[in-house]
Amino acid sequence: MSTVSEPVSLSAPRGADAGLTPKQLADKYGLAVSGRRPGLISYTKQLWARRHFIWAFATARLVAQYTDAKLGQLWQVVTPLLNCAVFYLVFGVILKSKDNFPPDTYIAWLCIGVFVFQFTQNAVQSGTRAISDNLGLIRALHFPRASLPIAFTVIQLQQLLISMVVLVGTVLISGITPGRTWLLIIPALLLQMMFNTGIALVMSRLGAKTSDISQLIPFVMRAWMFLSGVMFSIQDKIKEWPHAIQVLMSVNPASVYMDLLRHAFAPIIYNKHQPQHQDLPHHQWAYGIGWAVVMFVIGYVFFWKAEEEYGRG
Amino acid sequence: MADVDLSKLDTIRDADIAREPTVVVDDVHIVYRVHGAGSGKGSATSAMSRIISRKRSAGVREVHAVRGISFTAYKGEAVGLIGSNGSGKSTMLAAIAGLLPTEKGGIYTNGQPSLLGVNAALMNELTGERNVILGCLAMGMSPADVKSRYQDIVDFSGINEKGDFISLPMRTYSSGMGARLRFAIAAAKTHDVLLIDEALATGDQAFQQRSKKRIEELRKSAGTVFLVSHDNSSIREVCERTIWIEHGELVMDGPTEEVVSRYERGERP
């Protein structure tokens, strides 16, 4: 340790504090360890105080997303439409999945699945990059870091609401008339939003630590999409499978939320095996609520546990 | 550690009234772990063998950036940090801000220090206007506060002096303009501890004068300001106390004039 050759040390405490060690001095004046993570409740309070930031950040990002594109905001609508067109061509026309459905309804069934799955898929993907892509902001300003993954989930929700316009059009063109079940769209989306927030929080902590994750995510998401029955009815395929796997497939959160929304939009096509029985089994709602609450709580606590570490390195 | 403190005690002549500390740095060591240093990281076979053998990557190198620095800063002080490139000044600031973990020792601060660095980009694809609003909201201001301060921040940054630049995306700004806007945003809030890492160097003369005035105001409102700079004249102008760091060790801590003139002559005590 270098010695200080000054006659008057500017560091040493004076007067009544003279003689205190640095630690004692810090304790006496209530100084806290720099960058320490706040408790869960005060963290939540801080986060609540940043609600305007989360909303403004999400809106600004959504608007800025397509500033370089000539068609601009039109891509918000065109991208999901193109997605549906490709899936319709491959699964509907070439693989003939649509033949199992009541006439003209496959396209609506498919679009609901695609949009709902993409809501979760985008939340996972943007969550993975929420911290690592915003290190500049994290290092420059102090705010609860959970604001970022939550803001990115809000962006996905805003995007989904735009796609919803396309979706409603598609459903109406398919000859499905709006009914009472349409009211269920809102709670179903809110539950999925909660689930997505949780999973985005988990992914952003993982993505902040290990950049290898972002290489792996596209494969995981593709596998999940094919296993969830987005463009073909998974129920057809799993009937002969072992019971354990059938249970696993039926609690798969992606399938649960797709079922909830397919039922809400168009009860007649939600399950083609039961054309007479158009009621959704109640346990689907239980699964939906369960996944939303469990995932959100796990994600929130998991993210908060590493709060002081984001932006380091 | 205790010996050092005792030796310091002997040197106190005027027993002043007790001052309120804002930053206490207690025998801090900081070690960087750099990934991708050395050979072997890139090749797939070495990555495989590393995973199989479960050994720590050979590509990780440890850099001991700060070796046992201790000091205490008090309310209303402006402290300059000087030293050659790579001496550990910026590392020290990042650690005070809580952005780097300490290997040994502790850093205690009053409230949450804010670090202003040259590279601290905000949101490059958004306009300057959005950056001001989002930056203020992120610091915890209410939308009404932001509205009332907005014009002050833009005027302070001087971004609009040569036309309507505030409505352009921040990626189109020159490095000086970006730094000015960032400083203006961060300085809009009263900080208990403000850490400035070369952030003023890129601004023009008029902006430097404005920011020095703002630093003075922040000090008067009982905050503490740390300034890292290679521009000795701005250290002389802003700080009355200066800490000289070399090779991660504290060389000298004292009144600015003494420390800076010794640093300029290259005389280590």
Summarize the structure.
Chain A is mainly alpha-helical and 313 residues long. Chain A has helices at residues 22-28, 40-49, 51-64, 75-94, 106-130, 135-140, 147-173, 185-209, 213-227, 234-238, 243-251, 253-265, 267-270, 282-304, and one strand spanning 32-33.
Can you characterise this structure?
The complex is a heterodimer of chains A (313) and B (269). Helices cover 65% and strands 1% of the residues of chain A. In chain A, helix 5 packs antiparallel against helix 7, helix 5 packs antiparallel against helix 9 and helix 5 packs across helix 12. The N terminus of chain A is likely disordered. Chain A contains 14 helices and 1 strand. With 313 residues, chain A is mainly alpha-helical. Chain B has one domain: P-loop containing nucleotide triphosphate hydrolases (Rossmann fold, 3-Layer(aba) Sandwich). In chain B, 37% of the residues lie in helices and 25% in strands. Chain B has 9 helices and 9 strands. The longest helix of chain B has 16 residues. Chains A and B meet through helix 1, strand 1, helix 3 and helix 6 of A and helix 1, strand 1, strand 2, strand 4 and strand 5 of B. Strand 1 of chain A pairs antiparallel with strand 4 of chain B, so a sheet runs across the interface.
Whole-number count of domains of chain B: 1
The order of strands across the largest sheet of chain B is: 5-6-7-3-8-9
Number of helices of chain B: 9
Say which CATH homologous superfamily of chain B is assigned: P-loop containing nucleotide triphosphate hydrolases
End-to-end Cα distance of chain B: 20 Å
Oligomer: heterodimer
* Biggest pleated sheet of chain B: 6 strands, mixed
Instruction: Enter the CATH topology name of chain B.
Output: Rossmann fold
Q: Could you name the ranges of chain B where pLDDT drops below 50 across 5 or more consecutive residues?
A: 6-14
Structural class of chain A: mainly alpha
Q: Mean pLDDT across all residues of chain A, rounded? A: 82
Shape of chain A: elongated
> Which radius of gyration of chain B do the C-alpha atoms yield?
21 Å
What is the element string of chain A, with H for helices and E for strands?
Answer: HEHHHHHHHHHHHHH
- Strand portion of chain A, in percent? under 5%
Number of strands of chain B: 9
